[in-house]
Amino acid sequence: MPNNKKERARRETRRRFEQWARNPECQSNVASAVHNVKMGTAARRENPDAPQDGQSVFALERGNAFEASLINNGALVLLDALRGAEVISKTSSDFVDHRTTSNGGTLANLDAATQSGHAFLTALGEGQKFNGAVSSLTVRIPRGVMLPEATLIIDVLSVQMINDAPVIAVGEIKTYADQGGHTHRNDLATARAQMGLYVHALEITLDHLGLSDAVSVARHGFLILTHPGSNQPSVRSGEDLRYQLERARRGFELMEESAILLEGAYGDGDDTDDIGLLDLVLSAPTHFTDSCIAFCERADACYKKALSAGDGIVLGDDVSRFLNGISLQRAEAIMSNQQPKTPAEADLLARLQSQLPTLP
């Protein structure tokens, strides 16, 4: 019988990587992402009244319906949209669906989807001609980036034969509306970051399969959004992913280092009970920043700890950098004519005097 908990852990790889990337200096956040311990669970252990985490059911249903509308009937809508945006050529018509049964496809589970995805890449490398699109290609990253393993499901790929060699481009499907130059920049940044992660994952997988010289991964991708007020696709082609690729590459290296360190100290997560991992997340050092407020369920507790300690971070990242490790209490004392006790406090006084000429 498949291990449903491990299946969920594999499926959430992308979410965990993005969680890690938002605050890699917080060891609690790193432990949560690497071991797939929900930070919301830790927050409720810390404070039973902490809000429940989770996605909107409406948003999930709309996303599934939009993806299905693109792929149903041999992906006629998807292929037509990609041809119209010149992501694929006017004559491209090939399509293959790698979705699992839980997502509306025919593959039994993630293991079957991974085998199918790797077999597809291998066939391309061995000379199979393919011009079209692929839905939900699944790859298993052959490295210890996350514990127990890392698997990614890529929304959509385009494959074109260029000079008789296959070139893959990564796509991301989102249900928010394409508003041209007015599309929210944070939405676009998140989607591009995800695509950069996919590009790097594909490169790692192709290298592991010995296919790097036979199959290329493009440094640009495409977004499939919706037309405003409808569920019809709007394709943004030519999305430059070079920066996001480098971000993902460096992030994988750092996260792998974290995974190895945690594995050495606590095992790979398979024979450590959930309570032990939860205690690990709760006991690991935290590093509160402005960004925590937007993504971490423990942000309120960490803010209160920082406030109690007089940490300048409670007034924002800029204030924390300006104080350079000096507490708010000592900064207030220095501004009230108390003499600096350390070279760092003397430096702070000099900087305060340069910023506030009226300060004694």
Keywords:
360 residues, alpha/beta, single chain, Lambda Exonuclease, Chain A, 14 helices
User: The CATH topology of the largest domain, please?
Assistant: Lambda Exonuclease, Chain A
CATH class category label of the largest domain: Alpha Beta
Distance between the termini: 73 Å
Q: What's the domain count?
A: 3
**Secondary structural class:** alpha/beta
Oligomer: single chain
Q: Given the structure, what is the number of helices?
A: 14
Question: How many β strands by DSSP?
Answer: 7
Q: Low-confidence stretches at least 5 residues in length (pLDDT < 50)?
A: 268-273
The chain-level mean pLDDT equals 82
From the coordinates shown, what is the CATH architecture of the largest domain?
Alpha-Beta Complex
Q: Describe the global form.
A: elongated
> Describe the biggest sheet?
7 strands, mixed
Secondary-structure element order, N to C: HHHHHEHEEEHEEEHHHHHHH
Gyration radius, in Å:
24 Å
Strand % is 15-25%
Q: Helix coverage percent of residues?
A: 40-55%
